[in-house]
Amino acid sequence: MSDKLKIIISGGGTGGHIFPAISIADALKARNPETEILFVGAKGRMEMEKVPAAGYDIVGLPVAGFQRRLTWKNITFFFKLAASMLKARRVVRSFAPDVAIGVGGYASGPVLKAAASAGVPTVLQEQNSYPGVTNKILARKAKKICVAYPNMERFFPPSRIVQTGNPVRKNLLETIERATALKEFELDGERKTILVVGGSLGAGSINKGLISSLEAIREREDVQVLWQCGKYYHQDLDQQLKTHGLDNVKLMPFIARMDLAYGVADVVVSRAGAGTISELALLGKASVLVPSPNVSEDHQTKNAMSLVKEGAAILVADNETEEKLVKEALVLLDDIDHKKQLEEKIKLFAHNNSADQIAEEVEKIAKEKA
Ligand SMILES: CC(=O)N[C@H]1[C@@H](OP(=O)(O)OP(=O)(O)OC[C@H]2O[C@@H](n3ccc(=O)[nH]c3=O)[C@H](O)[C@@H]2O)O[C@H](CO)[C@@H](O)[C@@H]1O
């Protein structure tokens, strides 16, 4: 094997797949700057913007998701899948990677399948406590499956599982100046802060919970809310907020500087995506989680429950946000002991150096192949 490794990383769709992928790429580069990395994502999805912004090349496949209900879109799904398979094969042949890594999301199926058929070893990174169908199928051929949760031998061949945790962006772990964070979001240093995040795309039910509780938030002059609502919901919510004229709510479509947002947060209200949970654990944040019911195998509830049953987070159901969400967050903000307990307990779920560990596995596999 030459020193110069060539690695394909495929997948994406949402931040939960893209950010771990970028962290793995960064770790491979940090270990060996000569390593050449090519991303393969899905055309029109978030990765086509975020990956180049992180300094890596990406090729887009025309692949789309399969709709679980009966719809005409599923006819185009099969055409797109076939076209993606052909393109994935071409990309694998011309880039000739030493290893292909799949991080989940539409593109990883065709790419890992093409890689395995071409004799390229594959590695999976499964972020969730309950894998989707594609990863279960891809795992049959994968050399290693890097997981973040225990008991994954229920789904994957035990001898090929490695406990690595989910890669988290490095800058989230650096110490930040509180003043810089307050300035970034135009927040008040005298107030306690609730950070609200609806996953990388925003969450309708969390947004509803906030909108229906604006009066309760207005009454709390000692509190402010930094609210990421998702690009799709932003315009409408921004208009609704303006009519209420609150000075303690800051609405944003997406937060690029999550390091600063976590830095100012006293309590976090969030979806239960695996990436966010890994970040909350590493940073020891007291959290109220609202699992999305719209994900495969209800995996967010399973992610959240692994914390909740250990007293490491609070859960509010998706259909109860209007009555409970803001109320629970405010109670937690005031209950210093409970807040402290959650901060300590969630830290027990933290996994350090995950990206580096995955990069090491990938290098080992490349060496075995050579
Ligand atoms: C709807 C959906 O399919 N969600 C899935 C998606 O989650 P999704 O991408 O929403 O969520 P995750 O929680 O895993 O990751 C979100 C990432 O985006 C970052 N972030 C979020 C908001 C923001 O404004 N700025 C920002 O940078 C977070 O810091 C985190 O790094 O992938 C996860 C990992 O497979 C799954 O567990 C989720 O169920």
Structure description:
With 370 residues, the chain is α/β, with parallel strands linked by helices. The protein has two domains: 6-166 and 352-369, 3-Layer(aba) Sandwich (Rossmann fold), CATH 3.40.50; 171-347, Rossmann fold (3-Layer(aba) Sandwich), CATH 3.40.50.2000. It has 15 helices and 13 strands. It has a seven-stranded parallel beta sheet with strand order 3-2-1-4-5-6-7, with helices on both faces. The chain has a six-stranded parallel beta sheet with strand order 10-9-8-11-12-13, with helices on both faces. The longest helix is centred in the first third of the chain and has 23 residues, at 73-95. The chain is globular. It starts with 5 loop residues before the first strand and ends with a helix. The model has no long low-confidence stretch (mean pLDDT 94). It binds uridine-diphosphate-N-acetylglucosamine. Uridine-diphosphate-N-acetylglucosamine binds at residues 14-17, 19, 104, 127-128, 197, 199-201, 228, 254-255, 258, 271, 273-276, 279, 292, 295, 299-300. Uridine-diphosphate-N-acetylglucosamine is lined by residues 14-17, 19, 104, 127-128, 197, 199-201, 228, 254-255, 258, 271, 273-276, 279, 292, 295, 299-300.
